Amino acid sequence: MKVLATYNIKGGVGKTSTAVNLAYLSAREGRRTLLWDLDPQAAATYVFRVRPRIKGGGHALVSRRRPIEAALKATDFDNLDLLPADFSYRNMDLELDDTKKRTRRLGQLLASVADDYDVVFLDCPPSISLVSENVMHAADSLLVPLIPATLSLRTFDQLVRFVEDSHGSHPEVVAFFSMADRRKRLHREVIDTIPRKGTRVANTVIPALSIIEQMAERRAPVPAFAPTSRAARCYEELWAEVCPT
Amino acid sequence: MTSATRLLQATDESRFEIEALVAALSSQYTVVTGPKQLVRRARLDTFDRRLRAAGLTLEHQIVALGERLVMGRLDGSSTVVVPVKNMRWPALADVLPSGPVRDTIAPVTGIRALMVASEENRRIRRLALQNRAGKTVVRVEVDEPASAAAAPAQLKVRTLRGYAEQARRADRLVDSLGLPIVEPSESREPNSALMASRRDREHAARVHLAAALGDFLAAMRENLPGLLDDVDSEFLHDFRVAVRRTRATLKLGRPCLPEVMRRTWEPAFKLLGDMTTPVRDLDVYELDLPLMSGWLLSAHPADLEPLATHLRHRCAAERRMLVHRLRSVSFGRLITEWENELAQLVNTPDDADQQHLSTGQLADQTISRAYQRVVRDGAAVSDESPAEDLHTLRKRCKELRYALEVFAPVVAEGPRKRAVANLKGLQDVLGRFQDSEVQGHALRGFAEEMMAAGTTAGAMLAMGELIGHLDAEQDKARAEFDVAFACFERTTSGQPMHRPQDAR
């Protein structure tokens, strides 16, 4: 089982869109795929039309009072399951803080479904927190969407340092540009000049396209409702770059 | 992902009243009816049904929009769907796309090829039962035959993970249509009357032997098409096992079988066995090559590539010859005449027997004699004994093993299994001893052929290493013989192996 987390300290950069679309593509290729919506805003859960509620809330999951298997929901797509978000996830830091090995609990929870899935996506909330530290330990790869702007790069530097400073094994960090607008000079310059030394930057650039925003309206991944669209092709290219072998 | 599935059958067997179904389900769900799709569905398994034995199902489905593989479990739980392109069968599992399907299927099928076990055209319509949020919470599949010979129409209610309660509710709605539930298909039971007669120790031995020989003939026939088409190497292996068992049974049954068996059929099946040996030997070398490359210490596995190529060419040439012989009129006549001979054997009046032996009597006599021979020949083996003596002992062990197998229905199961287990340890040592010698000898022969063809020095050196390993393995097996034989003797002396009637 490979764990991929879409993560950035900043919000609104395309984490959920990436997680939803790549999870769909992974499942479409026949991989048994799970998407865990860790963000209390529950955007991924909403896209898959699942009720954003876990019996007993995040506390029941983190404390293992309720097994993770009992909270899983099939999506409308073959091979793709969802572990929905719950508004109580806003307190997940506190719940994790109360556990033994508090930075490794999410990984321990995922280990219980390791035989059921080939790929797990973690759609993370935008923050640096105990949840993030858990993600660092649980994930094999961090997929980091970056808006091509100066402040985004600064945040990315912070994130890379955060990963390097975390204890134990580090996930591979794979950055990629998201919501890019080639008509903007700044976007073009940032994409062309980002320092690639020491960090893997995917070649695929996800453009800012209205069809991606339509995911929330259509409540489905882009390749499902617009399989021949440019956005779908971009996500397919990105998946080809980052999919675990 | 889906989990448990419930199957219901249409009352008129060919189609469902879709309107009635939708009406029943619409009372609680929004029913989204998908288009009717013509699906060509090929159920895949190995010839010896390894997937079924492992509780797995694999289907290759071809629809208008493309192809897909659907892997599931026999109980209907868990389904994995993978899109594929241009898959052709039979094929080994390594042609499956990398991922969960190959990871699950390949270890089960091993060296056996996947082939089409059954094929039918179906018309499938998927119904999505949605809740108020438009989320699909249950799937219903209407599965109708597209040809007359196909299985009757079925309705599948698929439970989606996390929505078991909704599936139960849908089940209740479907129940209102009064459709009968389809029970899981049962594996074919052997003919119980026939089995009972074969367990009868008082039954004429000749009839028992004829039945066993008939089974071996059936096995030869079943494996012949796969052997001729070179589906996988196990068809030839199983064909040879059936031939070997036939030869052993003819030999064991000499006291009560007509003279024609010894005079005509024993040499005929020896010839048939010998005819298949070169291809089987070359198959084994090819299959073992990855293992052999692991023995190399100084040479690189790539150095064995010329040997692999040589084996492929030799094997292809030998196979062409074998296939030519097995397609010949004379082989066809052999099989037909053997079938007639067996029919005659069953229908021959009792007084035509050479000896009037019951199955029990022949079993006791044969097993006891075979056991005594193993003990006698094994005890005679000393440190100075030539390799030939161990080869002979291996043959004696095989005879005992075949006797225990052929007369299995009339020997108590517990003692027989223990006897086979005891024998296995000794057979393993003797097998390793002889195989090492034969393989070493064969490798020397291949080396000469390859040198004549101008092979690389690297290949010669690597093959030299393999021969060295085989020599060491043979010495090791020889050193283990005394312990293995003593163990066999200790565990079997006083046991009912040579007096099987005592165990009943």
Write out key terms for the chains shown.
A: 245 residues, alpha/beta, Rossmann fold, globular, B: 504 residues, Hypothetical Protein Pfu-838710-001, 2 domains, nine-stranded antiparallel β-sheet, 14 helices, 55% helix, 15% strand
Strand order of the largest sheet of chain A: 3-4-2-5-1-6-7-8
Task: Find the structural class of chain A using helix and strand composition.
Answer: alpha/beta
Report the CATH C-level class of the largest domain in chain B.
Answer: Mainly Alpha
Give the end-to-end Cα distance of chain A, rounded to a whole number of Å.
11 Å
User: What characterizes the major β-sheet of chain A?
Assistant: 8 strands, mixed
Strand elements of chain A, count:
8
Write the layout of secondary structure elements.
The complex is a heterodimer of chains A (245) and B (504).
Chain A (H helix, E strand, L loop, with lengths): L1 E5 L8 H14 L4 E5 L5 H5 L9 H6 L10 E2 L5 E4 L8 H6 L7 H7 L7 E5 L6 H9 L2 E6 L3 H16 L6 E9 L4 H9 L6 E8 L2 H4 L1 H4 L3 H4 L4 H13 L3
Parallel strand pairs in A: 1-5, 1-6, 2-4, 2-5, 6-7, 7-8
Antiparallel strand pairs in A: 3-4
Helix pairs in contact in A: 1-12, 5-6
Chain B lengths: L1 E8 L8 H9 L3 E4 L3 E9 L4 H4 L2 E8 L2 E8 L5 E6 L15 H10 L5 E16 L5 E10 L8 E7 L3 H12 L16 H7 L6 H24 L4 H20 L6 H35 L11 H22 L2 H19 L11 H21 L7 H20 L6 H40 L4 H36 L12
Antiparallel strand pairs in B: 1-9, 2-7, 3-4, 3-7, 4-5, 5-6, 7-8, 8-9
